[in-house]
Specification:
single chain, five-stranded mixed sheet, about 15% strand
Length: about 260
């Protein structure tokens, strides 16, 4: 075993569209995150300056609220035989506009867990970077509040059930006041790659019963983001990590 994610079931790893070009194409390909980690490890293009060259990576999290989007935006790019409202990464596209303490992915073949204290947001304090990650990280963790039904069903001993309703509504209200920057669709293309990889019939079987259906009695209001039905942060070609990876790849291939 090598790279392992230490995240919750309502969290998903995505490429950051401001740091990585063609995020939709990359995320639709099976194993894209693992393959990119392997490439970075092999090239060592940053000379040890990037946490992605080490054995543990701490990624920032961006929280997505339960605000709903226009129906045509939710269904964009989703095959007709699937209900996009059952999938958090397709249904919820509004962020709260602030980042949270990170979670880790680590190469467990190189990490040492014996007699070490494990931390939720930094994993291993003596082997993993700061809980805030790095400025030019190429990956991010999306954390989804989810629907009212899924939020109340979670088995989280930190919260009393009577407080859950208020917390869910508070998260949505924060998005109304501050909807955050456009970055709601970076995880969206996974569904296209999933269907292409497994085929229609296997997709129906594997995803049968997933998630919670849309409930108009509990769903929050629909709000349209300024970026419309394709919300991605603009790519910044000055991002150093991938540029240096590509440069070393070209140098190694030169005669």
């Amino acid at each position: 075993r090598t790279w392992t994610m230490f995240i919750d079931t309502d969290e998903f790893i995505v490429f950051r569209s401001d740091e990585v070009a063609n995020v939709s194409q990359r995320l639709s390909q099976p194993g894209s995150v693992f393959n990119l980690l392997q490439l970075i490890q092999q090239r060592q293009a940053m000379g040890g300056e990037s946490q992605f060259e080490g054995k543990c990576v701490t990624l920032l999290r961006l929280q997505y609220s339960p605000m709903e989007s226009p129906d045509e935006h939710v269904r964009r790019g989703v095959p007709d035989f699937l209900d996009p409202y059952r999938f958090q990464t397709l249904r919820f596209r509004h962020t709260e506009g602030q980042k949270y303490f990170g979670k880790a992915i680590g190469d467990v073949s190189r990490l040492h867990f014996a007699k070490r204290k494990i931390s939720t947001h930094q994993l291993l304090l003596d082997q993993c970077p700061s809980a805030w990650g790095q400025q030019h990280d190429i990956l991010r963790i999306n954390h989804y509040i989810g629907s009212y039904e899924s939020f109340l069903n979670r088995n989280d001993r930190r919260d009393k059930m009577e407080n859950r309703t208020d917390k869910w509504h508070d998260a949505g209200n924060r998005s109304i006041k501050n909807p955050g920057p456009p970055c709601g669709d970076e995880a969206r293309s996974w569904i296209q790659g999933f269907v292409e990889h497994f085929g229609v019939e296997n997709t129906k079987r594997l995803l049968h019963g997933a998630g919670s259906p849309y409930n108009p009695d509990t769903a929050m209001q629909r709000i349209e983001l300024p970026c419309g039905d394709d919300c991605l942060s603009p790519y910044d070609p000055r991002g150093p990590l991938l540029r240096m990876i590509e440069r070393t790849a070209l140098q190694s291939e030169a005669p």
